[in-house]
């Protein structure tokens, strides 16, 4: 069995099983936990879906008072998340991969657009990493999870670009490394801050919903 | 093919006798030099070496094969200089092509092996069954024994076709005959793999030319294939590559994309992971190759190509394994989640109780 065969077969199956176990575990663990009963007097009415949805929207933009201080971090964060989304979901072979799983596909972009997006995304990630390492506040807050999460997110982009341009090794080896790097990401997601990709919206919804009861403007 | 040209004659003399002009011969030398990625300055050296080369003795052993490799060499071309060169080698044994049969044929083989000990080229097509000697034998001798006997006195071995090079279709799961490749059995001889199902005739000519010119085998890749012909993927040299880059793919064999000659990646083309010269040398005197004819590459020059997923599934398709494993994973995750929530609830309850 070649490295590529392993990556496309058993490697992917193992990663998928771990991802599934981890996600279900984390989500169910969070949902089924005992929530303390709020004994305070409602000041803004009941917990509302409207409040939750509003929080999802308002938290997606930087708070006006802080905008000046967090502008760079906020918008570069958006930029690379969008870049990653484009590369993952709008690259032809990736779309075919999802089509194979889901049974339906969607339009994709030309490879040149994807490659430019991928390289720009990597550039932003490297910039943010350097900033994280030299910023006086972030330096104190950093932990291993920050660096591991950065690495497992960056590696698929790097190996994918190398595979596309056949740089450094034979194509099938690079393709295998690309798939393995994605599998590493899949395995790491449930046990790290990367779980935010599943938790971020429900979490904001819950906060906004609670705030609406307390009469706090989300 | 098994002509009675005298052994002492040089290749140049034989070609001249067969009416090959000097211009035609030099054109062939220039083409083959270019194909082998040698510098243009080597053309005259190749020509000189070929002209003066003595007819090399070649023994061709066919094992578990379909004769497609032999067909490829003998019937896919009208006579060409490559064909003439191929005819000019002293093919002392080939049980499909030789006139002799039975003991006479086996005697001829043994005579050639004895007379050219340490100098003859051994060409093999087909895989070797090691599961049971009776699965495939010639003149009462198992394929494995025949190979071992012939390999002993060979200068080098050329595995013709994917079956001899990597086991090929006979080795495909569940491999009922226990088929193996030549390289799995022979460890002490130089082996060159000219894979393909069938391989391109020009490639074997190139290998023979290199052997006659330099007295050695050409540079090989990690699978033992000549780098000059197997150095790049078919995808890299495919004329449809531009459509891949633009994200234009045929969705089926008869849609607009297919009619416009768009990339066949989505229809299962294995060209991105297949190393061969099909896209440049092509087939039938340079007429076309499978992708040019509208069919995806099957990856036939790669090891275990038969077992690498569906021919019509794109390379991006991944083997998911049984759905039951995924369902079990979901159930395990749910159990873990419930357990961790239960533990957290108990912890919370204890904390509340200790406060009150």
Would you summarize the structure shown here?
The complex is a heterodimer of chains A (218) and B (356). With 218 residues, chain A is mainly alpha-helical.
Essential attributes:
heterodimer, A: 218 residues, mainly alpha, Fumarate Reductase Cytochrome B subunit, 9 helices, 75% helix, B: 356 residues, alpha/beta, Rossmann fold, Cytochrome-c3 Hydrogenase, Chain A, domain 2, five-stranded parallel sheet, two-stranded antiparallel ribbon, 16 helices, 42% helix, 10% strand, elongated
Oligomerization state: heterodimer
User: In percent, how helical is the residue content of chain B?
Assistant: 40-55%
| Largest sheet entry of chain A | none
Provide the low-confidence segments of chain B as ranges. 1-5
Number of strands of chain B: 9
Write the layout of secondary structure elements.
The complex is a heterodimer of chains A (218) and B (356).
Chain A: H1 3-31, H2 49-58, H3 67-90, H4 92-102, H5 111-134, H6 136-141, H7 144-165, H8 171-188, H9 196-214
Helix pairs in contact in A: 1-8, 2-9, 3-4, 3-5, 5-7, 7-8
Chain B: H1 11-17, H2 22-35, H3 43-52, E1 57-62, H4 68-75, H5 81-88, E2 90-93, H6 102-115, E3 120-125, E4 128-129, E5 137-138, E6 141-142, H7 143-152, E7 154-160, H8 161-166, E8 179-180, H9 182-185, E9 191-194, H10 201-214, H11 227-230, H12 234-237, H13 241-245, H14 256-259, H15 278-281, H16 323-355
Parallel strand pairs in B: 1-2, 1-3, 3-7, 7-9
Antiparallel strand pairs in B: 4-8, 5-6
Helix pairs in contact in B: 2-3, 3-10, 5-10
């Amino acid at each position: 069995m070649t490295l590529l065969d392993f990556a496309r077969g058993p490697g992917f199956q193992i990663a998928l099983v771990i991802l599934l176990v981890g996600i279900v575990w984390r989500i169910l663990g969070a949902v089924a936990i005992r929530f303390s009963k709020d004994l305070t007097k409602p000041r803004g009415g009941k917990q509302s879906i409207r409040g939750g949805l509003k929080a999802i929207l308002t938290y997606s933009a930087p708070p006006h008072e802080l905008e000046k201080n967090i502008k760079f971090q906020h918008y570069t964060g958006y930029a690379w998340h969008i870049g990653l989304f484009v590369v993952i979901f709008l690259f032809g072979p990736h779309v075919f991969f999802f089509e194979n799983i889901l049974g339906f596909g969607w339009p994709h972009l030309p490879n040149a657009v994807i490659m430019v997006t991928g390289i720009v995304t990597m550039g932003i990630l490297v910039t943010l990493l350097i900033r994280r390492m030299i910023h006086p506040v972030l330096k104190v807050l950093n932990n291993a999870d920050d660096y591991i999460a950065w690495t497992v997110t960056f590696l698929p982009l790097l190996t994918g670009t190398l595979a596309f341009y056949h740089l450094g090794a034979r194509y099938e080896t690079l393709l295998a490394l690309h798939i393995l790097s994605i599998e590493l990401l899949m395995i790491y997601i449930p046990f790290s801050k990367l779980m935010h990709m599943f938790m971020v919206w429900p979490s904001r919804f819950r906060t906004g919903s609670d705030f609406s009861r307390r009469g706090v403007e989300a | 093919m098994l002509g009675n040209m005298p052994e002492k004659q040089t290749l140049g003399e034989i070609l001249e006798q067969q009416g090959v002009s000097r211009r035609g011969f030099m054109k062939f030398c220039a083409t083959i030099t270019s194909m082998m990625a040698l510098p243009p300055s080597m053309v005259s050296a190749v020509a000189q070496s070929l002209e003066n080369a003595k007819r090399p003795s070649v023994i061709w052993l066919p094992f578990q094969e379909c004769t497609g490799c032999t067909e490829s060499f003998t019937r896919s071309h009208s006579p060409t200089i490559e064909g003439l060169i191929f005819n000019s080698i002293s093919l002392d044994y080939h049980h499909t092509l030789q006139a002799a049969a039975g003991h006479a044929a086996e005697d001829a083989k043994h005579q050639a092996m004895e007379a050219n000990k340490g100098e003859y080229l051994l060409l093999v097509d087909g895989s070797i069954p090691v599961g049971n000697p009776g699965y495939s034998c010639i003149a009462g001798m198992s394929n494995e024994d025949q190979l071992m006997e012939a390999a002993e006195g060979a200068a080098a071995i050329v595995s013709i076709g994917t079956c001899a090079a990597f086991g090929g279709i006979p080795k495909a799961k569940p491999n009922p005959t226990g088929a193996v490749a030549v390289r799995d059995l022979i460890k002490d001889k130089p082996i060159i793999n000219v894979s393909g199902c069938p391989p391109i005739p020009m490639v074997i000519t190139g290998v023979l030319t290199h052997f006659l010119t330099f007295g050695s085998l050409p540079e090989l890749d990690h699978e033992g294939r000549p780098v000059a012909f197997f150095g790049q993927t078919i995808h890299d040299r495919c004329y449809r590559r531009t459509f891949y880059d633009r994200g234009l793919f045929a969705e089926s064999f008869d849609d607009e994309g297919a009619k416009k000659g768009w990339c066949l990646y989505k229809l299962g083309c294995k060209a991105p992971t297949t190393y061969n010269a099909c896209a440049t040398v092509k087939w039938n005197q340079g007429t076309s190759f499978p992708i040019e004819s509208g069919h995806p590459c099957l990856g036939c020059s790669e090891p275990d190509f038969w077992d690498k997923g569906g021919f019509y599934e794109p390379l991006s398709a991944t083997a998911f394994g049984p759905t039951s494993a995924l369902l079990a994973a979901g159930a395990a995750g749910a159990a873990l989640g419930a357990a961790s929530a239960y533990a957290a609830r108990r912890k919370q309850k204890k904390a509340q109780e200790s406060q009150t």
